[in-house]
Write a structure and sequence with these properties.
With 173 residues, this protein is α+β, with helices and mostly antiparallel strands. It contains 6 helices and 10 strands. It has one domain: DNA methylase specificity domains (Adenine-n6-DNA-methyltransferase TaqI, Chain A, domain 2, Alpha-Beta Complex), CATH 3.90.220. A hairpin with an 8-residue loop joins strand 6 and strand 7. 33% of the residues are buried. It comes from Catenisphaera adipataccumulans.
Length: 173
């Protein structure tokens, strides 16, 4: 690992930051569909998510500010009521407004980003604001800067941490 090739980059430079939304709960046509729709309560204990508690329909997605997020490139990031809980999305899905999700660029390894979760969370908590509860906006999150290696090294580091996490999980069983 040669840190001479690491560069400081804003999160905006490495990912699109996408907020979530909630379809109207009074319209039954928006609910009980096939699209995963995550809430912050579902994030935090696992590295990967591949099925939400509630589901929305395509009509619900189209008539809300929720956006379809791609699988294996999206790191869900809770932006309030527990800022900084993260998980990697394993199949396409959407979130409520309690998220500012990171849709990683092609040259960014999502597992590498996930492995930085404690650092990102700590930084996000320092710039969060709010009177009732702290929240970080997508703009503020995107302006946070971190050191990133080249994509080959990201994949190697991400692979290392993924293997380590798998080993920890095996020993917990």
């Amino acid at each position: 690992m040669n840190i001479d090739f690491w560069e400081q980059r804003e999160l905006f430079e490495i990912a699109d930051i996408i907020g979530g939304g909630t379809p109207s709960t009074s319209n039954p046509n928006y609910w009980d569909g096939e699209i995963d729709w995550y809430t912050p309560a579902e994030i935090g204990e696992q590295i990967f998510v591949n099925g939400s508690v509630r589901k929305i329909t395509q009509e619900g997605l189209n008539n809300s500010s929720a956006k379809m997020l791609p699988a294996n490139r999206t790191v869900l990031f809770t932006s309030r009521a527990g800022i900084g809980n993260m998980a990697i999305l394993q199949r396409p899905g959407a979130t409520n407004q309690g998220f500012q999700s990171l849709v990683c660029n092609e040259d960014i390894d999502p597992y590498f980003v996930f492995s930085m979760s404690e650092i990102i969370k700590a930084r996000a908590e320092t710039v969060a604001a709010g009177s009732t509860f702290s929240e970080i906006s997508g703009k503020k999150l995107g302006e946070l800067t971190f050191w990133f290696p080249e994509s080959i090294e990201q994949r190697q580091i991400g692979h290392y941490f993924k293997n380590l996490d798998n080993l920890i999980t095996l020993h917990q069983c």
